[in-house]
Amino acid sequence: MKNVLTIAGSDPSGGAGLQSDLRTFSSFNVRGLSAVTAITAQNNARVKSAVAVPGRLLKDQLELLFEEFTIDAAKTGMIGSLENLKVIKKFIEAREIKNLVIDTVLRATAGRPLLDKAGMKAMASLFPLAAIVTPNIPEASALTGLKIKDMTGMERAAKALFEMGAPNVLVKGGHLDAAPTDLLYDGKSFTFLKGRRIKGPEAAFHGTGCMLSAAIAACLARGRKMDAAVKEAKSFLEKELRGRVRASASPGPSR
Description:
By secondary structure, the chain is of the alpha/beta class.
């Protein structure tokens, strides 16, 4: 069985963060491992507070995991602090993880920062170590300084992120008003991945970025090529979201 590591924050609701990642890994029949970067108080609607773990504790977690397991792929989610980002960067450089997915988590949906300002400025230093970087439109805009209002803007942002060192970039287009279309860029060509907008309560869509990046990591661990891994991960995400929406519409237990 392949081993896939998530380096991410804890979400007690289970809708996002490392709990969501581990559940996603299980769906792809890979062993999930986790290193905790931050503890949060949140539910499917909002983040109330968040505290990054000390860098030394994160380092100890990573050292012990790599001591016992061969890591076939990894992903980062919420990093929490510049200190943790430096720990992750140093660790990955020393071990040359080839299937690294960087989900550029900067803020919660409601706007609360999930990475300190210094960490945000240093985020791009991780890109050359990644197999793929997966920002949504607000994250891509924050990282590149570009305003993204349409597909042309997504293309410009993808090129900018590639030039910042990311070998593959997936700009997620769910924040546009049109039908959600993600853009995969490998430095040579653009691949447009169209989807259908799924309607449902906002809580049903909590942690979608976590699920997608975790699914990509699992697919890469299982030997999928990048374009196939992204497509399979998107199909998985759409299926999961439809299931969440159906579950939210089901009547609760009678009292």
